[in-house]
């Protein structure tokens, strides 16, 4: 989750996450930060977590329950968008019922598509250093850990063989990232204006086992 947040911020997305931002807030109050971040966000991203039998300690306990309550209370608001990130080491059923209806993005294959959707444009020029390779590696390491500790022992060989991303999809991500920048019609002189125009508030929710990937697994 840490590397995903850093990557999104490199893509000119103001990604807010509890593991980084609560300790930097004035109040340090978990519920107050959650409510403030939720209300100010244009997009709520729900990330699938390891299954319940995979215990991973979290920085802030029970934050997932509070976020689910906010989703239930505010889902009718038209100015917010809700998306799901499906990590390769998690199953669709790991999501809470409240999130099953939302549009889903498979990670890491649809990472460029997610960025374009957040900005609501066809092409994106990235600003700053992009840590895409670090993000992809952290996803793969978390996935291997989930397999090694027996979490997916109930799966057959054919199912587990498909869990790790192949070289093809990762190469496609690199190619698509390059195309996003090369096909952007705006010149480099327009960079500052583009940065201002594309900046979108975005809230990434991290914490408990049913709403996000636990931060320790991807750091």
CATH architecture of the domain at 1-50 and 62-149: 3-Layer(aba) Sandwich
CATH topology of the domain at 1-50 and 62-149: Rossmann fold
Mean pLDDT: 68
Beta-strand portion reads: 5-15%
CATH C-level category of the domain at 1-50 and 62-149: Alpha Beta
- Major sheet attributes: 5 strands, parallel
- Specify the helix fraction band: 40-55%
Q: Structural class, from helix and strand content? A: alpha/beta
Distance between the termini: 7 Å
H-E order: HEHHEHEEHHHHHEH
Mass-distribution shape: globular
Radius of gyration using CA atoms only: 17 Å
- Count of helices? 10
Order of strands in the sheet with most strands: 1-5-2-3-4
Description:
43% of the residues lie in helices and 11% in strands. With 219 residues, it is of the alpha/beta class. It has a domain at 1-50 and 62-149: Rossmann fold, CATH 3.40.50. It has a 5-stranded parallel sheet, with helices on both faces. α4 links the parallel β2 (43-47) and β3 (81-86).
Question: Notable features of this structure?
Answer:
alpha/beta, SEFIR domain-containing protein, Rossmann fold, 219 residues, 10 helices, 11% strand
Task: Record the SSE blueprint.
Layout: H1 2-10, E1 13-16, H2 18-21, H3 30-40, E2 43-47, H4 63-74, E3 81-86, E4 103-106, H5 111-119, H6 132-148, H7 157-161, H8 167-182, H9 191-198, E5 200-205, H10 215-218
Parallel strand pairs: 1-5, 2-3, 2-5, 3-4
Short description:
This protein is an alpha/beta fold. It has helices at residues 2-10, 18-21, 30-40, 63-74, 111-119, 132-148, 157-161, 167-182, 191-198, 215-218, and strands at 13-16, 43-47, 81-86, 103-106, 200-205.
